[in-house]
Give the backbone structure.
Amino acid sequence: MRFAGDFVRCGALGWCLEVMFTSVDSILAGDFRLMGHTSLLMFPIYGLGAFITPVSRFLDAWLSGLPGFPRAGREQIPVLGRVLRHGLIYMVLIFTVEYITGIWFKSLGICPWDYSMWPDHVDGVIRLRFAPLWFGTGLLFEQVTAGNIWKRSG
């Protein structure tokens, strides 16, 4: 049941973030009503944020002991190190999910986004300029699904 709750929370949070983000377009167009938009298709994609915590735990264990990666759980990883490590992992994961679902939706003719007009696009389905947004979104989803993991223990 925990996963289902996390899925719904991440899906709803993603919808809200997307509506807020896309409402900036209306401001730039001179419409101060903040008319943002999203798609029903986006809810399950954002809901996949429920996998953030289990995937980060798996990757922490997998990366532990490699040069530059302290052992997770055995040594105290500094808060900034954890934030950077997890943020980068999430950014890559979100780009991967966005790319796979975007290509799939394009093949079905139902992709709700198209970045092909931007110079930093990849196959029209991801924008590299969104890297900082996905970094932060991943950390936000981690907070929603796992609580405050950034605090120091002990």
